[in-house]
Amino acid sequence: MRASPLIDLRSAAGEELLEAAMASRPVVALDFDGTLAPLVPRPDDAAMDPRAATVLPRLAAWVPVAIVSGRGLGDLAGRIPVDGLVLVGDHGNDWRGLPGMESAGEQRARQEQVCREWAARLAEPLAALGPGLAFESKALSLSVHYRQVGDPPRMRQRLLELFDTLDPRPTIIEGKFVVNLVAPGLATKFEAVEQLVAHHNGGTAIFVGDDVTDERVFERSPPHWLTVRVWDDDTSPGGSATSAARAFVQGVDGVVALLRRMEALAQNL
């Protein structure tokens, strides 16, 4: 974790950070849920904020823009109503829109098989845990959402105990009321952003996200990246010690304002 407090991007210091990052013609990468789409009780109901959908293609005309999500690639693509963006699903492992990055081969086939076997193994035990769980089976990962159960902390513990019995052992990535199980040997969002930067001449990145899964990017990012934590409506920016990001915005409204400011700065590159 970075020791210094997060910088409000609306402040003078925040504007200075943003101007410096944009001057380097960065890759702009954003999470989806809670960043470009408001969080909702049912993940299937999530939709991109229409204001973000308006500004994203305009920004992408100036700098590379990618959406990096834990959702499956097909699910993610179906929620992006604009063209011209790179889409990265399954926590950094499934790509669309960047030639040469499509995953293929025997290793991927083995990883997909592992996920199918986990899904079959978990179907009955998850059903026995009672109502309120939402289960997603994706090509390279599984997700179990527990936001709507009666006792979320207790359910989280029971899920972790269940997943600990799987063979091979999954990589566990927790989010807001969700546990993600990722097949062994796969990338994370951090490696995905690294690959995006390398593809675009090894410059810098602006990465924006709201969740525990995004903290892996914040924690591992080099100093010249600008990392931005999105605080949701129930989270005070005063809790900045809980994030390794360099700066913050408040909610999807803050993300939209950031996108508009980046577009304005990009026009002067």
CATH class of the largest domain: Alpha Beta
Sequence stretches where pLDDT stays below 50 over 5 or more residues:
236-241
Helix and strand element order: EHEHEHEEHEEHEEHEHEEH
Question: What is the CATH H-level superfamily of the largest domain?
Answer: HAD superfamily/HAD-like
Please report which band the strand proportion falls in: under 5%, 5-15%, 15-25%, 25-35%, 35-45% or over 45%.
Answer: 15-25%
Structural class: alpha/beta
- Number of folding domains? 2
- Put simply, the count of helices is 8
Q: What is the fold named in CATH at topology level of the largest domain?
A: Rossmann fold
Please give the share of residues in helix.
25-40%
Mean pLDDT: 91
- Rounded Rg: 18 Å
Which architecture name of the largest domain does CATH use? 3-Layer(aba) Sandwich
- How is the largest sheet built, in terms of strand order? 1-12-11-10-2-3-4-5
Give the total of beta strands.
12
The geometry reads as: globular
Please give the largest β-sheet. Answer: 8 strands, mixed
- Which quaternary structure do these chains form? single chain
- How far is it from the N-terminal to the C-terminal residue, by CA? 32 Å
List the helices and strands and how they pair.
Blueprint: E1 7-8, H1 12-23, E2 27-30, H2 50-60, E3 65-68, H3 73-77, E4 86-89, E5 94-96, H4 106-128, E6 134-137, E7 141-145, H5 152-163, E8 171-175, E9 178-182, H6 189-199, E10 205-209, H7 212-220, E11 226-231, E12 247-250, H8 251-266
Parallel strand pairs: 1-12, 2-3, 2-10, 3-4, 10-11, 11-12
Antiparallel strand pairs: 4-5, 6-7, 7-9, 8-9
Helix pairs in contact: 2-8, 6-7
